[in-house]
Design brief:
globular; binds ligand ISJ; 10% strand; alpha+beta; Chorismate Mutase Domain, subunit A; Nonspecific Lipid-transfer Protein, Chain A; 57% helix
């Protein structure tokens, strides 16, 4: 196909974006399949029928409502759901039939799971192992436009670092560039203090802090301190050590009480969850 230069260039960019979306679709299907396996395991343990046509109707209705909002044709959404539900049924060892032929077993109501109810210890790691590890989530995150990733990170930092940004304890970052690298998610952002906000910039960093998503979450959620993580080589500092160490000290002294409570709880829960999932994947007791 011979296209003039600008069109060829633009088509290349569009196709790269399409490839990312396709990666995201496959990653999402893989994640859905694992969750279906978890649902299957729970239903088996509870002794209820694996097929639940009422739930399937709800799943389809929700998806159609979203498809309509996003101007996706109803027939496309329907075929997507046919595929997803057939895959879930197959994963749970059911005959794949989308309700057109064999009559379905009557749906069985499952007892609601109470918030205080926790999974028995033997079940939790098995369920957690069904979640995709961060390396599998990476293609999904890469499907998000870089601009959105930046905005999310900038908004999160503005909240977490509101107090040090106001009281000047971040002034050492002015004009300096520090990178945060999430190794297993293959993400890297270079941060610079501009005015009264930390911006994600397109430039080479002077220093980098590198760690896995779980270790960085453990640090942010205050479940692990920076020294321990550096000592275990779970966190790595490269480049200008002084800048890196000053940033680390600031993290350590971060007035945690000034971080909004909801965010603190979310970080703490997220970090605990990531730690338990990692332990389950490694086959350790969490
Ligand atoms: C995943 C489940 O198992 C089956 C598959 C469903 C789905 O793919 O959404 C929904 C109901 C069940 O027939 C479930 O019960 O939630």
């Amino acid at each position: 196909m011979s296209l003039p230069g600008p069109e060829r260039f633009a088509l290349g960019r569009v196709r790269t974006a399409i490839d990312r979306i396709d990666d995201g679709l496959v990653a999402l299907f893989a994640a859905r399949r694992r969750l279906a396996a978890a649902a299957g395991m729970l239903k088996r343990r509870a002794g209820v029928s694996p097929r639940d046509s009422l739930r399937e109707q709800q799943v389809r209705a929700r998806t159609q409502a979203l498809a309509q909002r996003l101007a996706l044709p109803a027939s496309t959404a329907e075929r997507l759901l046919d595929l997803a539900i057939a895959d879930a049924c197959q994963r749970q060892g059911m005959a794949v039939d989308l309700g057109q032929g064999v009559p379905l077993a009557a749906p069985v109501m499952m007892p609601p799971i109470m918030p205080s109810q926790t999974f028995p210890p033997s079940l939790a790691p098995r369920l957690l192992r069904l979640l995709p590890p961060p390396t599998r989530v990476a293609p999904l995150l890469h499907a998000l436009p870089a601009r959105w990733q930046r905005r999310l990170l900038e908004a999160a930092m503005a909240r977490v670092l509101a107090t040090p940004l106001r009281d000047g304890s971040l002034d050492f970052m002015r004009g300096r560039r520090l990178a945060i690298e999430v190794s297993d998610l293959r993400l890297r952002w270079v941060l610079e203090l501009r005015g009264d906000r930390l911006d994600v910039v397109d430039a080479e960093p002077e220093a980098s802090v590198r760690g896995s998503a779980t270790d960085l979450l453990l640090l942010a959620g205050r479940l692990e301190d920076a020294d321990t993580l550096f000592f275990q080589r779970a966190l790595e500092l490269t480049g200008d050590t002084e800048l890196g160490l000053t940033a680390r000290n600031l993290l350590e002294r971060l007035p945690w009480e000034s971080v909004p409570l909801g965010l603190r709880i979310a970080l703490n829960r997220g970090a605990r969850f990531a730690r338990a999932a990692r332990a389950a994947h490694r086959g350790e007791a969490a």
